[in-house]
Amino acid sequence: MSKVAVKKLHWRSKVQEIFVPLVGSSGELGIAIGGGADYGEFPFVTAAPGGGITVGDIILEIGGTPVLGLTLGDVRGLLNSCPHPIRIKTVSPGMVGT
Residue span of the signal peptide, if any (predicted)? Predict the structure, then answer.
């Protein structure tokens, strides 16, 4: 008796790629992040101006660099060193593991 393989959708099919520009006259990035390896978490968005990136989104890559295992300080350093607009890949938290 053979089993029929059921292909589940992987969360990677739900990845969003967003280009985050600098905002305002001060040239701020406009997003804030939390989490990181020092807290045992993926980095995630804690404040966002809108335009595709949402508070709570999990950050997978910044400027093509995977952020899994990076501390919050390392992720912030990566954000500050990337050319602008910064390309960020995120996934909604409900999509991880489904």
Answer: none
Cα dihedral sign, 65-68-71-72: positive
The pLDDT tens digits of the residues spanning 38-77 come to: 999 999 999 887 667 889 999 999 999 999 999 999 999 9
What is the rounded end-to-end Cα distance, in angstroms, of the chain?
A: 28
Distance of CA 38 to the CA centre of its chain: 17
Question: If 0-12 CB within 10 Å is exposed, 13-18 middle and 19+ buried, where does residue 43 land?
Answer: buried
What is d(CA 74, CA 76) in angstroms, rounded to the nearest whole number?
Answer: 5
Cβ atoms within 10 A of the Cβ of 20, count?
A: 22
CA distance 79 to 7: 36
pTM for the predicted model, two decimal places: 0.77
Helix (H, G, I), strand (E, B) or coil at 12: helix
